[in-house]
Structure formats: structure tokens, C-alpha cells
Amino acid sequence: MERTDRDVDELLAVQRGERADDLRALDRIIAAEFAGLERVLWEGVFWGGTEQAIIGYGAITQSRPKGGAVDWFLVGLADQAKHLSVYVNAAEEGAYLVQRHASELGRVKVGSAAIAVPSLDRLDLEAFVRVLRRARELTPDVR
After folding, report:
1. d(Cα 25, Cα 77) in Å, to the nearest integer?
2. Which of 53, 77, 52 is nearest to 132 (CA)?
3. Distance between CA 69 and CA 111 in Å, rounded?
4. Which of 24, 113, 114, 139 fits a disulfide with 96 by CB distance 3.0 to 4.6 angstroms?
5. 3-state secondary structure of 82
6. CA geometry: angle at 72 spanning 13 and 121, to 5°?
7. 32-76, pLDDT tens digit by residue?
8. What is the superkingdom listed in this entry's lineage (predicted)?
9. Domains of the chain (ranges plus CATH)?
């Protein structure tokens, strides 16, 4: 995946379907918590081999267990086939934040560093904002 010059707001404006309003609402929440930091569209082939468009909030350099460090985002938001995905690339005490707070996030599915949100009413927004704030606190070099 690569950072692109495509306008995030234009992408959000043309979104249609049952989750379009939820996507825009999550973008507003995340963008507010990451005000002053990078908000860009990442596009390309994601880990599973599928073409993706992910809104990235906060630029980080992330080390990988195999290979060198990569430029990435601290939080990402994407519309998937059956849900919205929120990726939170911050860890505390050896576990990704979303895993540590999975029981607080509502009726959503939590993976390693991702939250699958089938609809916004299933996500506990207060807990979600706490996770976003903690991710920013744990990542002082985010830009």
C-alpha cells in the first residue's frame, strides 16, 4: 500500500451504501482526535491480497519483525464488504490496544490490531475515543 494524493473528503463524499454515514461519522471522530496530524488516503494491495483504500490518520514509522521499518498510519479506517475496519497500530505492555480494550468496545469483532464494525450503533464510542487518545499518547513521534 502507498500513501496517495487523492482527497479523503472527495472519497467520503461519493461513498454510498448502508455504511456510508457510519464511515463519515467515524472519520469525523478519528479526525477530531488526530487534529493537526496527517490524514491521507492509502491505496493498493493490502495484506490479504485485496485492493484497499484506507484513510490513514497520523504518520508513523513502524518497525517490522522481518525486514526494515515502513511508513504507515497510526489509525486507519476502511470500508470492507461486510463491515468497517478500524486499524489501531499502537501497543501497550506487549498487546495491541484494541486487544487490551476489546471487552469495552461494544458488540464488535476485535482482531490483532483491528476492530470490525458492522454498524456504528454496535461500537461503544466513549471506549473507542479512549483507545484513540491512548494510541496518540503512546506514540509521541506521530506526525
Report:
1. 11
2. 77
3. 22
4. 113
5. coil
6. 45
7. 999 999 999 999 987 677 788 999 999 999 887 787 888 999 999
8. Bacteria
9. 2-138 (3.90.1150.200)
d(CA 105, CA 126): 8
Pair 110, 103: CB distance under 8 Å: no
Q: Is the pLDDT of residue 79 over 80?
A: yes
Q: What cell does 101 get?
A: 480494550
Which residue in the block uniquely carries the three cell numbers 470500508?
79
- Cβ within 8 Å of residue 124, ≥6 positions away: 104, 105, 106
Residues constituting the chain: 143
What is the DSSP-derived secondary structure letter of residue 33? H
Give the C-alpha separation, 107 to 79, whole Å: 18
Between CA 88 and CA 94, with CA 89 as vertex, the angle to 5 degrees is: 110
By the 8 A CB rule, do 116 and 19 touch?
no
